[in-house]
Write a structure and sequence with these properties.
alpha+beta; globular; 22% strand; 22 strands
C-alpha cells in the first residue's frame, strides 16, 4: 500500500506496490489517525472525517466519491466536492466516475461465470477460443492461456500496444485484434510482471467468442443486471454528463501533471473513450453501485437473494497469485506496512499488509483515478473515486482508510504524501529545464527538415505521417486525432513534437540515416513523468 516512486504520476501510483516501498510514514502530525474504529458508526465517522481532511490538504481536487462496505452492508456511500471545478453541482453517492482499470476484475468475473458453466478453462490456450489467435512470438501465441490474459505475465512491456486505443482512437475492436499479432514482446513468457491492457482486450474477445455476445452485453446482462447495479455503464460513452464527475488535470506548463488544475473535457468520453477496449477499462460507476460489487466480491460471489454470481471455488481462484510483482524483507520499525510479497492474480493485486491479506486494484484515466481495496479477513472493502489526477491524494486516502479499518494509528499519510509530492514536483521542474537546455544546445539535423517528410509505418500501429508545413514539419498519428502537431529540431537526428493539444504527451523521434536518407525511426516520450500508455517506445518505424 505504501508507494515509493520519486515521481508518482497518475497511473504509476496506482500500480506501484507495497513490496517495493521505501517511504517512511511520519508519526504524530495533525493529520495522523489517532484512535482505532471499534464499531461501525465510529468507522464511518472516522473515514468521513479523514476524507474531508484530505480534501482540505488538496484544495484543487474537484470531487471525490467513497464507498465503504462492512459485513455485507454499504455503511458509507458518499460524494464530496463538485462535479466540475468552479461549478455548483455537488457530487453525491449517485455521481458517475470513470473507474478505468477497476473494470478488469469485472472482466475476470465474466470469465469466471463461463468457467463455472464449463465453457472456458483457465489454463486452456486462447487459440482454443479465438481461432487463428497468435502473437509476434508464435511460441507464446500458441501457449498463452486465459489465465495469462488476466495476469500481466505474457511478456509484453509495460503498456505495450496501448497506442491502439490511447488517447482516444476511432479503431474498432476488430482492428485492435488484427494488430495484436504485431505488437512486440520484450520479455520471457511468464517471466516477469508487466502491466498490459492489451491482453484484457483479448480476454474480452474470449468472452464474446464463447458466449456469442459482445463483452459489454455479457457484463450488462450477466453481471450488472443480476447484481442490481442500475447506475453503472460499461462504456464511458454511455455516461450522462449531467450525472458525471467531469475529468480534470494539470496540463502545464512546463510538463503534463504540472500547472493549474484544468477541466479536460465536458464529458468523460471526450478525453477517455475506451469503447473498443472496454474490457480493460471502460466502466463508469457510482459509489452506491460499486458498493454492491464490493459486497459480492467479499461474499465470494454470493448475491443478496441467496443465488450465486460465480462459485466460491472460482472466487478463490481469481485471488490466487499468478505472478510476483515485487518483494521485500518485510515490515520494519520504520516501514510497518511494507509487504513481504506483492502479487497479481486475475484482475486483482494480492499482497500482505500489516500482517493481513489485502486485495486491491487501481484505475487511471485522463482526468480521473480510483482504487478498490478489500480486506477479506475483516469483511471490509472500500473504494475511492476521483475526477482529477492527484495521485498523492489517492495514495493518502488508500493507505489512510486501510489503516482506519485495521486500527493502525499514528501514521501521517497526508504529511508523508505532501513531502513526496513536493520532491516530485521539484524533480519534474528540473527535468523540464534540462530538456529545454538540451534542445537549445542541440546540434542541427544533418539533413534539411524536408528530408524527414514522408509516411512512416509501424507494423502494429500503422502510419505516422510527416509533411512539410511552412518552414517546418507537421507530424500526424493516422489513427489518433489528438497526436498531431509541429515537429521541430531537438538534437541531431532527434526531432520532437509540440502537440497543440496540451492534454497529450510529446514525443522524440530519432531517425537512422543510410546513404544520405532517413530510412528508420524510433520514438520515446519527452517527459520523464509520461503515462505508460503512451508507449511510443514500442514503435518501429520504416519509411514507406
Amino acid at each position: 500500500m505504501t508507494l515509493s516512486q520519486p515521481r508518482l504520476t497518475r497511473r504509476r501510483a496506482l500500480f506501484a506496490t507495497a513490496a517495493s516501498a521505501g517511504v517512511v510514514a511520519l508519526p504524530g502530525r495533525a493529520w495522523s489517525i489517532q484512535t482505532p474504529a471499534n464499531d461501525t458508526a465510529s468507522l464511518v465517522d472516522q473515514v468521513d472525517a479523514y476524507v474531508r481532511q484530505c480534501l482540505a490538504a488538496w484544495p484543487d481536487q474537484p470531487a471525490l466519491g467513497v464507498a465503504l462496505v462492512k459485513d455485507g452492508q454499504a455503511v458509507l456511500t458518499r460524494g464530496y466536492g463538485v462535479r466540475r471545478q468552479g461549478g455548483a453541482d455537488r457530487a453525491d453517492a449517485h455521481t458517475l466516475f470513470a473507474i478505468a482499470s477497476n473494470t478488469k476484475n469485472v472482466t475476470a468475473a465474466a470469465l469466471a461465470i463461463l468457467v463455472d458453466e464449463g465453457k472456458v478453462k483457465w489454463d486452456e490456450p486462447v487459440a482454443s477460443y479465438i481461432p487463428g489467435f497468435t502473437l509476434s512470438d508464435p511460441v507464446i501465441g500458441a501457449r498463452i492461456t486465459v489465465r495469462d490474459t488476466l495476469s500481466h505475465r505474457a511478456g509484453f512491456g509495460l503498456g505495450a500496444g496501448d497506442l491502439l486505443f490511447w488517447p482516444n482512437s476511432p479503431r474498432t475492436r476488430a482492428e485492435i485484434m488484427a494488430a495484436v499479432p504485431h505488437v512486440p514482446i520484450e520479455d520471457g513468457f511468464r517471466a516477469n510482471y508487466h502491466y498490459c491492457n492489451l491482453m484484457f482486450v483479448v480476454a474480452g474477445e474470449i468472452i464474446a467468442h464463447v458466449s456469442g455476445q459482445p463483452w459489454e452485453t455479457f457484463v450488462q446482462t450477466r453481471i450488472l443486471d443480476r447484481v442490481g447495479m442500475t447506475e453503472t455503464v460499461p462504456f464511458t460513452s454511455m455516461a450522462d454528463p449531467a450525472r458525471s464527475a467531469l475529468p480534470h488535470g494539470r496540463v502545464g506548463p512546463p510538463l503534463r501533471y504540472q500547472g493549474a488544475m484544468t477541466l479536460l473535457s465536458d464529458t468523460i468520453a471526450g478525453i477517455w473513450n475506451w469503447d473498443s477496449a472496454g474490457a480493460a477499462g471502460g466502466f463508469c460507476t457510482t459509489p452506491a453501485d460499486w458498493a454492491k460489487w464490493i459486497a459480492v466480491r467479499l461474499a465470494m460471489g454470493a448475491l443478496p437473494d441467496g443465488s450465486r454470481l460465480f462459485s466460491e471455488a472460482t472466487a478463490r481462484e481469481m485471488w490466487r497469485p499468478n505472478i510476483i510483482v515485487g518483494s521485500s524483507p518485510g515490515p520494519t520499525a520504520e516501514l510497518p506496512g511494507r509487504a513481504i510479497a506483492s502479487t497479481y492474480a486475475m484482475g486483482w493485486s494480492v499482497q500482505d499488509y500489516r500482517g493481513e491479506r489485502l486485495i486491491s486494484h487501481g484505475g487511471g484515466s485522463p482526468g480521473g483515478i480510483s482504487a478498490t481495496v478489500l480486506i477479506p479477513g475483516r469483511s471490509v472493502g472500500f473504494a475511492i473515486f476521483s475526477n482529477a489526477e492527484e495521485s498523492f491524494l489517492l495514495r493518502t486516502l488508500r493507505s489512510g482508510i486501510a489503516d482506519i479499518v485495521m486500527g493502525k494509528t499514528g501514521f501521517d499519510w497526508i504529511a508523508d504524501s505532501k513531502r513526496l509530492e513536493a520532491e516530485g514536483i521539484a524533480a519534474s521542474l528540473k527535468a523540464a529545464a534540462d530538456i529545454d537546455a538540451k534542445q537549445a544546445a542541440g546540434a542541427p539535423p544533418s539533413l534539411p527538415l524536408s528530408a524527414y517528410a514522408g509516411t512512416w509505418r509501424d507494423p502494429w500501429y500503422g502510419d505516422i505521417r510527416i509533411e512539410p508545413r511552412g518552414d517546418g514539419l507537421w507530424l500526424s498519428f493516422s489513427r489518433t486525432p489528438a497526436l498531431q502537431g509541429p515537429l521541430e529540431a531537438y538534437d541531431g537526428e532527434t526531432l520532437r513534437t509540440r502537440f497543440p493539444d496540451t492534454r497529450e504527451e510529446d514525443a522524440f523521434i530519432t531517425f537512422v540515416i543510410e546513404d544520405g536518407r532517413p530510412v528508420r525511426a524510433t520514438m520515446k516520450g519527452v517527459s520523464p513523468d509520461i503515462d505508460f500508455s503512451y508507449d511510443y517506445q514500442n514503435l518501429r518505424l520504416t519509411r514507406r
